[in-house]
Backbone:
């Protein structure tokens, strides 16, 4: 990423926003729900101040917990979208959102705030001492936020902080503290799709196999997810599309892509339909051309 949070190597609480670090360093990403207005974000006005220091007291609870967790597991650098992308600079926002596939894939680990509805929530939960059946509320808002899908599919490793326990998934397997899930019995669609979306899996498939993953896994899941800003529909999918395009080019197939539709199977993509026509509606703000499945919500 162009910018990264430097948590320091000592015991100091304050952190610094670094730009163009210039050296390879392992880093952790945070995947979270903004929960409305973000209380702390980098703007053109605050950029220079943040490059000097971001005080611990100014960080919302979720960010403090993410910093603490990152330090505890031995990493110095942390990427948080609202702090590492200049939020009121459209050029920077477009450039960095286009790099999401690389930011999440190259990160050592993604911390997923699966039960936190905003930056003021804690990443951690107080656990009950009573033995109980564990589950993750996959319908909760943090897990149905549209940006979450690419954040968690593209990451090499994801650690979910659930309401009752920790879940984790990587390119090889999924598991949890109670050992009650497996690759076939995953608590979230994200982990189920992740196994199919592994680069080595995509590269072994032909156009038909890749198309099946796109139509039967990506499109149905993403179309049910929620956006705070309607115009983010295509940008929030761009990282996944970039990964698919890379797999197609590896197969020497046409990788043209526009508005959620692929050139190499464009006719078939135009055969999309709505399961419940009575519930379908056009978004108030334009987000995709009418021939695209993205034009309906």
Residues:
């Amino acid at each position: 990423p162009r910018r990264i949070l430097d948590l320091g190597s000592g015991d100091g609480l304050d952190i610094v926003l670094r730009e163009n670090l210039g050296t390879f360093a392992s880093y952790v990403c945070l995947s979270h729900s903004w929960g409305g207005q973000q209380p702390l974000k980098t703007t053109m006005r605050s950029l220079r101040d943040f490059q000097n220091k971001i005080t611990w007291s100014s960080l919302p609870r979720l960010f403090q917990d993410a910093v603490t967790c990152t330090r505890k597991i031995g990493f110095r650098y942390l990427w948080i979208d609202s702090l590492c992308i200049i939020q009121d600079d459209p050029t920077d926002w477009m450039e960095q959102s286009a790099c999401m596939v690389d930011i999440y894939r190259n990160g050592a680990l993604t911390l997923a705030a699966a039960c936190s509805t905003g930056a003021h929530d804690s990443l951690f939960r107080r656990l009950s001492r009573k033995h109980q059946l564990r589950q993750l509320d996959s319908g909760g808002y943090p897990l149905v936020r549209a940006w979450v899908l690419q954040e968690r599919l593209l990451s090499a490793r994801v650690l979910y902080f659930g309401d009752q326990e920790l879940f984790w998934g990587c390119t090889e397997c999924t598991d949890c503290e109670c050992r009650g899930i497996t690759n076939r019995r995953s608590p979230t669609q994200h982990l189920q799709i992740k196994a199919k979306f592994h680069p080595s899996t995509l590269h072994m498939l032909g156009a038909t196999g890749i198309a099946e993953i796109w139509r039967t896994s990506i499109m149905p899941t993403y179309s049910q997810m929620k956006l705070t800003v309607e115009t983010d529909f295509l940008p929030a999918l761009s990282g996944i599309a970039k990964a698919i395009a890379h797999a197609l080019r590896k197969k020497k197939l046409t990788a043209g892509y526009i508005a959620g539709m692929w050139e190499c199977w464009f006719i078939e993509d135009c055969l999309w339909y709505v399961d419940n026509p009575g519930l379908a509606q056009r978004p108030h703000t334009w987000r995709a051309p009418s021939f695209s499945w993205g034009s309906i919500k």
User: Anything to note?
Assistant: The chain has two domains: 3-196, 227-297. The mean pLDDT is 83. Residues 207-223 form the longest helix (17 residues).
